[in-house]
Write a structure and sequence with these properties.
152 residues, 21% strand, Mannitol-specific EII, Chain A, alpha/beta, globular, five-stranded mixed beta sheet, 6 helices
Length: 152
């Protein structure tokens, strides 16, 4: 599942952003660059629409911004590890350091996004997974670990 959704070029480590807005725009920029969308504005708008319903900032300094959007042409995940934590209006009130952007087309009839979110949420309960989010040093290492841990 995730081997098709995540790729090393969609893993961004030690990125510096000051706000949640900056990160959402970065996800939009990356999505255009890697042909996930040809409509950044619509994608970012849809990410914000979902965010307004309920914060995607979970515990453990993790946020899972996600959308099912007509603007998404191909289901993908991007991962961003921040150099400095950013306020995300998280459920636990803590700032966010790890962001998984989950981008799904509206035609996602199999509810793949829910499966990805459930898999991530389950793994976030594991200490080893949380430690790896911080300790893996390269995008390739993260990709290999992530696909082995979560991929089917």
């Amino acid at each position: 599942m995730t081997q098709l959704l995540l790729s090393p070029e969609l893993i961004f480590l030690e990125q510096e952003f000051k706000t949640k807005e900056d990160i959402m725009n970065f996800i939009g920029d990356v999505s255009v660059k890697f042909n996930i969308t040809d409509n950044k504005e619509a994608l970012v708008r849809d990410l914000w629409q979902r965010e307004k319903e309920y914060s995607t900032g979970l515990s453990e300094s993790v946020a899972l911004p996600h959308t099912k959007s007509d603007a998404v042409m191909e289901a993908r995940i991007c991962f961003i590890r921040l150099k400095n934590e950013v306020d995300w209006d998280s459920l636990d009130g803590k700032d966010v350091k790890y962001v998984f952007g989950i981008l799904m087309p509206s035609s996602n009839l199999e509810n793949l996004h829910l499966k990805v979110i459930a898999s991530l949420a389950t793994n976030l309960l594991e200490d080893e997974f949380k430690e790896k989010l911080e300790s893996l040093e390269t995008a390739e290492e993260f990709y290999q670990y992530f696909t082995n841990q979560i991929g089917a």
